[in-house]
Amino acid sequence: MSSESIGWQLQWFTGFFVPLQIIAVALRFYARQMVLGAHFVFEDALVFVSLILQLALAGVGIGSVYHGGVGHHLEYLEENEPQKVLTWGKYLLTLATLYFVTVMVPKIAVLALYKRIFPARSVQIIIYLLGGILIGGAIANVVTSLAACKPFKANYNPTLPGAKCIDKEAFYVWTSVPNIITDVIMLVLPLPIVWNLHNTKRIKVALTFTFLVGSFGLVASILRFHTFFVTNSFTDGTYDAVELIIWTLAEPGIYLISACLMTYRPLVERVTRSRAFGGLKGSLHVSSQRMGIGNGAGREGESGERSLPLKSLNKSGRGFTELTDEESVEVIRTSSDGGRPRQEDGIVVTTEIQNSWSRS
């Protein structure tokens, strides 16, 4: 049996993908904290935890190449380096157990964002249900992974006398299905709210794209499921593990990157000096004779008229809620809160309204 190894493929992928995730997270924090000056919120902490878990998962994957013989054919290892076969079993158990937690955390981060910007009770209930399913599923999968064999050592050494194990092959394949289902729900959840906004079609399309970005992990989840479905993880385990581990790293990593991409609008605007992408910030134009109203915080519009910060009418038609720079999708709050008006001090202008979008 040849000593040829394809472990380098996993090493190259990790060497490219890990820095990509670090850059994605760094840009997220730069966009939110440095550009917007936004407060540190719960999903920021989840993104940071997700990155740490992803680095740990990548480290285990690389370790499996050096110490577990991943990349070599199993037959070669059994003949020449049998101790690595046992070590590979330990790495496999660690990878599977860590994966179930790592893939859950960035999805919870996206749900935390949804919870913050979608105040409608019906949406909040769905968010809590999804979060419960994700957390409960992760706990159940971790417990099942660790208790899959009796005695425990049989998890990484199934040749032990009297060892009894569940069908691990089926377990690894079908645990991806709940991920796919929850991804589809998370993809669909914000869309009705976005398309019910009192705003232009262009803005609705931009918002739709923003939330679709957060579901890129769905594609990775489907591809991982297909790879595990058509590949037997145990026939030539150490050789086939290269592709399987790559997808095991890619799926949660893409979830993490997606959670970061959703927050890049302020950074894009700073770089391009354009509001064309995700331009939720606009202005209410009023005639020059009305500019004595308020504190004079208005600015020049494109037509030369003075302008006030954009305020979005809620569904009830009663009252406006001012958009802020801190939350690019704040407009969604007022269109998804069941029509409850928000009380604000000062004079509300309800006439001679025209949307304009700053491109400076």
Write the layout of secondary structure elements.
Elements: H1 7-36, H2 42-67, H3 74-80, H4 82-102, H5 105-117, H6 121-146, E1 149-150, E2 164-165, H7 168-174, H8 176-188, H9 191-195, H10 201-213, H11 217-230, H12 237-261, H13 265-272, E3 282-285, E4 299-300, E5 306-309, E6 311-313, E7 320-322, H14 331-335, E8 355-357
Antiparallel strand pairs: 1-2, 3-5, 3-8, 4-5, 6-7
Helix pairs in contact: 1-2, 1-12, 1-13, 2-4, 2-5, 2-12, 3-4, 4-6, 4-12, 5-6, 5-12, 6-8, 7-11, 8-11, 11-12
Keywords:
single chain, 360 residues, alpha+beta, four-stranded antiparallel β-sheet, two-stranded antiparallel ribbon, 14 helices, elongated, disordered C terminus, Rhodopsin_dom_fungi
Give an overview of the whole structure.
The protein is elongated, with a radius of gyration of 25 Å. The chain starts with 6 loop residues before the first helix and ends with a strand. It has one domain (6-263). It has 14 helices and eight strands. The protein has a four-stranded antiparallel sheet with strand order 4-5-3-8, with no helix packed on it. Strands 1-2 form a two-stranded antiparallel ribbon. The chain is an alpha+beta fold. Helix 1 (7-36) packs antiparallel against helix 2 (42-67), helix 1 packs parallel to helix 12 and helix 5 (105-117) packs antiparallel against helix 6.
